[in-house]
Amino acid sequence: MTTAERVAAARAAERVGEWDAALAQYESAFAALGAGGTAAEAADLFRWIGSIHRMRGDGESAQEAYEASLTIAECASLPFQVASAYNCLGIQAQTLGEPDRAESYYTEGRSYASQ
Fold this sequence. Notes:
Blueprint: H1 3-15, H2 19-33, H3 39-55, H4 59-75, H5 79-95, H6 99-113
């Protein structure tokens, strides 16, 4: 199965709320990236993995995955992925009832989204 097929399977599982299956497919897609994968693909996968953790109620794992996505995106100078990671961090902060921190993440993300 290709990385794209694994992502498609993860998205299909995600749409019907099968969080465990979605997580397994996203993690499998990440493992399949290997040396041929791009930083953008890795950043996207970490972000998607983080979202599954958030939906499963595992805020700590979600935060870690979002931060990994952000680090990869920043190091690779990928403004779309940086903006997306900040947006996810903002959603996580909102979920935790931290509106000021969420606003800070959203503001930072917006600055990258316009690049």
